[in-house]
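Quick one: structure tokens for this chain, please?
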Amino acid sequence: MSRSIEIAARPEPIRVVPEETALIVVDMQNAYCSKGGYLDLCGFDVSGAAPVIEETRQVVAACRAAGIPVIFLQNGFSADLREAPGRRRRSGTSRMR
């Protein structure tokens, strides 16, 4: 029988089997979460990102300590933006580097 662990979470704890679980962190990058990043430069308020970043750090650390793989996915484009939709080319996506 596989060992399961309980992860503290809201609104209730989550029970997982580490060998069958992975944490996937999506788009936790400066372009979206930092002053001077893409969203900030486009006029979006990124001030609420700091607590989310800290919570994410804690979850990542807990998963690693439990032997759960952590996978980071990151949005990005090549310098010439060839894979970006046309509207992104015009909107300043090049600032995301």
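The chain has four helices and four strands.
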